[in-house]
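Q: My hope is that you can spare some time for a protein that puzzles me. Underneath my words sits a plain record pairing an amino acid chain with its backbone structure tokens. Those tokens are not coordinates but codes from a learned vocabulary of shapes. Thank you; the sequence and its tokens follow:
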Amino acid sequence: MTDTPPQAKREIWNHNPALPIPNSALFDWPPRPRLALWWLTKRWVQVTSGTLFLATALIVWNFLQPATETMRTLAPGWVLAIWARNLILLTIYAGALHLWLFTFSLQGEKLKYDARPMMTNNGTFTFRDQVRDNMFWSLTSGVASWTFFEVLYWWGASNGVIPTVTFQGHEAWFFVSLLLVPLWTSAHFYWVHRLLHWPPLYKRVHALHHRSINIGPWSGLSMHPVESWLYVSALLIHFVVPTHPVIFLVHIYIKCMGPAFSHAGFESLLARDTKVINAGDFHHQLHHRFFECNYGTSEVPWDKWFGSFHDGTEAASDRIKERRRRMYQK
């Protein structure tokens, strides 16, 4: 009598990055200074979403910003102009990614994490369609929260209530603050995200974002208004710590347009099989698949420190499933 070989586990991913996925080397012990420096600077020294956002911030600040005198008084004209600008920017970034990856499928399923299509004719979603649902909540709740914090900042800065610095004379702080923004964003996101997974808030608020298990560019900012406000509140750091307005804009774009990249569902954009720019974040893709893991980002290993890190391996999947079972039994 021969033993029946154990059944292989079903492969749930169309594409895996190199596993296990790493956390930032900034907090490695013993320290690895060269690798830590690369983690700290890599988004600013190669073509990434970060460099795109920095370029966008510089263009907006120099050519598309209302005059300081205009913004000293809250008035519909300039407030609506900021709202329209944000609506257009999100549509350009999320829309272009969606067109490339999904509408025209210019790279097929190459480097796509989850091969399943987005949901249609499903009552879980507004309009019974995932893409329309995601677009609606991103362009309404998402852009409204983003615009609220941005308008408040410009009004406060124009009236001297919110401290800012110029580039000249503060060059070193400009670049240091640019490097620190992702670290602050990671800390804020982790703790707000853990709060949103508290059952009462999850059911009434965060569940809307988690409708999208198989994510796409429009999924990133698709949030309940309460979640949007909590999420964008990371910008409040600039209301008390003096930074250059361009740094504020970069932070906005990381928070509000960055999710279009991190939720893209593909590791990178390809042009003739050549990687053009990194897109999806497998660290966060795992969160949408397994829910109770990877609440933070890879910039700071909060999940590793608090036992919720999923590194993409089968062993981690088993551990997270057991963690979920224990959590839901309480």
